[in-house]
Design goal:
The chain is of the alpha/beta class and about 325 residues long. It contains nine helices and 13 strands. The strands form four sheets. A five-stranded mixed β-sheet has the order 1-7-6-4-5, with helices on both faces. It has a four-stranded mixed β-sheet with strand order 8-13-12-11, with helices on both faces. Strands 2-3 form a two-stranded antiparallel ribbon. α3 crosses α4 and α6 (about 215-235) crosses α7. It starts with a strand and ends with a strand. The mean pLDDT is about 95. Bound molecules: oxa(dethia)-CoA. Oxa(dethia)-CoA binds near residues 37, 154 and 216. Oxa(dethia)-CoA binds next to α2 and α6.
Length: about 325
């Protein structure tokens, strides 16, 4: 028993922000950002929330799958930027789309979050607990970014991507690998609420994303090729069998480096980071939805999904479309 994707959907905020606009805020340039990251623009929320973007993406995925919201049994939201601590984003999305029969909860594994949620859904469905799941990666990173820090504010964007999955007996997910390394947690952080109670009075204000970009860069380029190889081994496939590598959209140079290490032509690594930036857990399903809607994925093709980020965490999934 496995799972296969039967519908995809995505949503972006209305407001697009170009590199030139960012260069008005910090000491950078369109040329530097494009050369070092491949990013040309990103979307920034003015009114959209994690839950509203997620709900829009979910509705589109359901529509494409030809399913009603009431049919969803498991609803997972992968996010590291929830607006509220309670209730969880998944329950808010459930309410917005009317998925009244779903069990709903959030998964946070930062930029690997969508993959970890997909694997969670696979585990529930393969063990016979549920028959389908709606999985969405949704982020409003713009509220966690220090807009004075040129090392991070150039990279991130807001958005959501969703997939509807159902149990299947042939094809679908063929192999999965996940890794977490908490020892390297300090290289990408965003503090949250301070301890402030009867006994402790916190004096610290709000905190924003802090990143050692070079460390994350080298982690991704070294670890992701190995992780992809491990997932392919589980699926009894080789790199040459893969039609498309749909990777986390962090930096074009990271993707180039991974392609080189795997010995695969870069044309098999589709990208949309030039238009949407790094949208963390939304990046993989957003790109998947674009490819699917443009008819760039054909039935029977072998697709590798792979994500990496804060934790540090990473994962890879091999599937037959
Ligand atoms: O989703 C997963 C999370 N994050 C990532 O995947 C990010 C991974 N890392 C990266 O993408 C890259 O490390 C960055 C794009 C963040 C930075 O690129 P880099 O090539 O690693 O630059 P660097 O940090 O080594 O900095 C090189 C120079 C420095 O100046 P000096 O010290 O050589 O004079 C920086 O101060 O570039 C400078 N710099 C900038 N210059 C213009 C850093 N950011 C900028 C900027 N514009 N935005």
């Amino acid at each position: 028993m496995s799972i296969r994707i039967v519908g995809t959907g995505s949503a972006l905020p209305e407001r697009k922000v170009t590199n030139e606009e960012i260069a008005e805020l910090v000491d950078t340039s369109d040329e530097w950002i494009r050369e070092r990251t491949g990013i040309g623009s990103r979307y920034v929320s003015t009114k959209e929330t994690v839950a509203s973007l997620a709900a829009d993406a979910c509705v589109r995925a359901l529509r494409q799958a030809g399913r009603e919201a009431e049919e969803v049994q498991l609803l997972l939201v992968a996010t590291c930027t929830p607006e509220d601590a309670l209730p969880c984003m998944a329950c808010q999305v459930q309410e917005k789309i009317g998925a009244v029969n779903a069990v709903a909860f959030d998964v946070n594994a930062a930029c690997a979050g969508f993959l970890f949620a997909l694997n969670t859904a696979w585990a529930y469905i393969a063990s016979g607990i549920y028959e389908n799941a709606l999985i969405v990666g949704s982020e409003v990173l713009s509220k966690m970014i220090d807009w004075n820090d040129r090392g991070t504010c150039i990279l991130f964007g807001d958005g959501a991507g969703a997939v509807m999955v159902e149990k299947c007996t042939q094809g679908g997910v063929l192999g999965f690998v996940q890794h977490s390394d908490g020892k390297k947690g300090a290289v990408l952080t965003c503090g949250s609420r301070q301890l402030n109670n009867l006994y402790v009075k916190s004096s610290e204000g709000e905190s924003y994303v802090q990143m050692d970009g070079r460390e994350v860069f080298s982690f991704a380029v070294k670890q992701i090729p190995l992780t992809i190889q491990q997932a392919l081994e589980k699926a009894a496939l080789a790199v040459g069998d893969v039609d498309l590598f749909v990777l986390h959209q962090a930096n074009k140079r990271i993707i180039d480096g991974i392609a080189r290490r795997l010995g695969v032509d870069i044309s098999r690594f589709p990208m949309n980071l030039d238009r949407v930036g790094n949208t963390s857990s939304a990046a993989i399903p957003l790109l998947l939805d674009e490819l699917n809607r443009e008819g760039r994925i054909e039935k029977g093709q072998i697709i590798v999904l792979s994500g990496f980020g804060a934790g540090l965490a990473c994962g890879a999934c091999v599937m037959e479309w």
